[in-house]
Design goal:
Layout lengths: L12 E6 L2 E6 H5 L3 E7 L5 H13 L1 H5 L5 E6 L3 H10 L7 E4 L4 H5 L3 E3 L7 E3 L2 E6 L2 E7 L11 H7 L1
Parallel strand pairs: 3-4, 4-5
Antiparallel strand pairs: 1-2, 3-8, 6-7, 8-9
């Protein structure tokens, strides 16, 4: 079952590579008492994700935060080392949190997994964005067409804040 507006996010643990090494980020801790924009991509360094989706959130970061958002995070079913390299490649350090759902446990728990094996990517995430307030989804935008980041893009999300 796909997560819906009004649902509480399930507990899961992301991985994040920091200057101090590998760390675990629990969903309950990341979202507790905060308003967070979370968006997901099928894969780091893939064309739409790298050239459109992440840059849109970086460009609109200040405007999103000005609307009362505490943090913006991107999640992908990639390992934390790939996510750390992608953070550097997109100049996103200090702007977005790059979270690894390395085993797709979070993605599967919210019903947003997609089998992209035909494209050699395996199990990945659908492209979406959401606004989460104190762990509860208040807005959810699931991209309908592959290769686009319109419905789940930063400009569309900014209008919802």
């Amino acid at each position: 079952m796909t997560i819906a507006i009004g649902d509480k996010l399930p507990e899961a643990t992301f991985k994040e590579k920091t200057a101090d090494g590998m760390s675990e980020v629990k969903v309950s801790e990341l979202f507790a008492g905060k308003k967070v924009v979370l968006f997901a991509v099928p894969g780091a360094f893939t064309p739409t994700c790298h050239l459109n989706h992440v840059p849109g959130y970086i460009e609109n970061r200040d405007a999103i935060l000005a609307k009362g958002v505490d943090e913006i995070a991107v999640v992908s079913v990639n390992d934390a080392f790939v996510m750390a390299a992608w953070e550097k490649a997109t100049n996103g350090t200090g702007k977005l949190r790059y979270l690894s759902d390395w085993d797709a446990s979070f993605t599967k728990a919210i019903g947003m997994d997609a089998d992209l094996s035909a494209g050699t990517m395996g199990i990945r995430s659908q492209r979406y964005s959401m606004i989460v307030e104190d762990g509860t989804v208040t807005s959810l935008n699931i991209e309908e067409a592959r290769g686009q980041a319109v419905i789940s893009g930063a400009a569309a999300l900014l209008e919802q804040l």
